[in-house]
Every structure is written in C-alpha cells, then in structure tokens.
C-alpha cells in the first residue's frame, strides 16, 4: 500500500510517519486485504490537531475518517478508530459484494464543474442567464452495483454519488433524502 502522509503547516516527523503506516496498515490488513493507497493529512484548528485520512481500496470503495485531539498522536488514533469502526461495520457487505470480483472496479472519466451564479444582490438584471464556470475538474465514475454505490456513498459521507450500473451500463444516481433514507435514480 502506498502512503502519502503530509501536514498543513505542520512538520510530520519520521516517528509519526512510522506510527501512521503501522497502525493504518494493521487496520487495513484486518478488514481489507486489497488497499491501494492511503492519504493522511494533519492540520491545526486553534489548539486542536486534526487528522483526515482517505483510503482507496481496489474494490472501488473509498473510506474516509477524521479525528481531532489536543495531541497529534491522539488525533491520528481517533481517526484510525473511526476508520476501524467504519470498516468493521461494513465488513460483511464488503466481503459479500467483492467475493466474485477478480479485477478492480473500472472508472470512467467525466468533467465536473463549479458554477458561480449572480445572487442579484445589486438589484440589476444580469446580461446573461448563464452561470459563469469558475472551476473545471476531472471526476471518476465507478462501474459498480447499486448496493456498492450506497455503501461507498456512506463511507465517503457524501450526499450524492453518480455511478455506472454494472448490470446494464447506464448512469445511475444514489442520494441521501431529507427524511434520512436513500434515493436511487435509475433512468432505465
């Protein structure tokens, strides 16, 4: 597994890097034998240290966790506990969904845009009703089942996930509804 351990205006020493690699490696070995890479970022928020970790699995899932504490090692340990709890909670589903999968999940590229709209606070009518594009990024769309999409959306704490349904190849969307349930849009 590849590790990328960095700090935002914090010097991350060799001892902390070794601790992160061993502890995160133990969690991943316990619940998933196929992690591809891990990204761990340390930062400060007032007097607290914050640790954010993202682990990409070859099955297409991305697990994210965040922890904070007054000491940097305690912040990482809190983050690692949350990652452990997430993977333990979804262990059965991960195992059942990927038993037959021999190859990694395929990803298709897509463009992602951030649009800036005029809020109309100055009281004037805009020249054009088209919003201005302020950022263009590359997004990855996984080819997975609906159950895997819901699981990935929950692991990422995302409000919505666009995916290619591996049963029929069409684009689908799963999202968290206001009532707490999961919605699934399948245009087929």
Automatic annotation (TrEMBL):
<dbReference type="InterPro" id="IPR036567">
    <property type="entry name" value="RHF-like"/>
</dbReference>
<protein>
    <recommendedName>
        <fullName>Ribosome hibernation promoting factor</fullName>
    </recommendedName>
</protein>
<comment type="function">
    <text>Required for dimerization of active 70S ribosomes into 100S ribosomes in stationary phase; 100S ribosomes are translationally inactive and sometimes present during exponential growth.</text>
</comment>
<dbReference type="InterPro" id="IPR003489">
    <property type="entry name" value="RHF/RaiA"/>
</dbReference>
<dbReference type="Pfam" id="PF16321">
    <property type="entry name" value="Ribosom_S30AE_C"/>
</dbReference>
<dbReference type="InterPro" id="IPR034694">
    <property type="entry name" value="HPF_long/plastid"/>
</dbReference>
<dbReference type="GO" id="GO:0043024">
    <property type="term" value="F:ribosomal small subunit binding"/>
</dbReference>
<comment type="subunit">
    <text>Interacts with 100S ribosomes.</text>
</comment>
<feature type="domain" description="Sigma 54 modulation/S30EA ribosomal protein C-terminal">
    <location>
        <begin position="130"/>
        <end position="183"/>
    </location>
</feature>
<dbReference type="InterPro" id="IPR032528">
    <property type="entry name" value="Ribosom_S30AE_C"/>
</dbReference>
<dbReference type="InterPro" id="IPR038416">
    <property type="entry name" value="Ribosom_S30AE_C_sf"/>
</dbReference>
<dbReference type="GO" id="GO:0022627">
    <property type="term" value="C:cytosolic small ribosomal subunit"/>
</dbReference>
<comment type="similarity">
    <text>Belongs to the HPF/YfiA ribosome-associated protein family. Long HPF subfamily.</text>
</comment>
<keyword id="KW-0963">Cytoplasm</keyword>
<dbReference type="GO" id="GO:0045900">
    <property type="term" value="P:negative regulation of translational elongation"/>
</dbReference>
<dbReference type="Pfam" id="PF02482">
    <property type="entry name" value="Ribosomal_S30AE"/>
</dbReference>
<comment type="subunit">
    <text>Associates exclusively with 100S ribosomes, which are dimers of 70S ribosomes.</text>
</comment>
<keyword id="KW-0810">Translation regulation</keyword>
<dbReference type="InterPro" id="IPR050574">
    <property type="entry name" value="HPF/YfiA_ribosome-assoc"/>
</dbReference>
């Amino acid at each position: 597994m590849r590790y990328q351990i960095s700090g935002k205006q914090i010097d991350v020493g060799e001892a902390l890097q070794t601790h992160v690699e061993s502890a995160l490696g133990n969690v991943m070995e316990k619940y998933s034998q196929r992690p591809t890479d891990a990204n761990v970022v340390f930062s400060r928020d007032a007097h607290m240290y914050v640790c954010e970790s993202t682990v990409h699995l070859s099955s297409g899932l991305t697990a994210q966790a965040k922890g904070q504490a007054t000491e940097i090692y305690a912040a990482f340990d809190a983050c690692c506990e949350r990652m452990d709890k997430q993977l333990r909670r979804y262990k059965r589903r991960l195992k059942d969904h990927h038993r037959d999968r021999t190859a990694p999940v395929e990803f298709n590229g897509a463009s992602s845009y951030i649009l800036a709209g005029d809020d109309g606070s100055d009281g004037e009518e805009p020249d054009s009703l088209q919003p201005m594009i302020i950022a263009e990024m590359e997004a990855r769309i996984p080819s997975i089942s609906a159950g895997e999409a819901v699981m990935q959306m929950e692991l990422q704490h995302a409000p919505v996930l666009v995916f290619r349904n591996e049963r029929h190849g069409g684009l689908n969307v799963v999202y968290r509804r206001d009532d707490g349930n999961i919605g699934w849009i399948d245009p087929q």
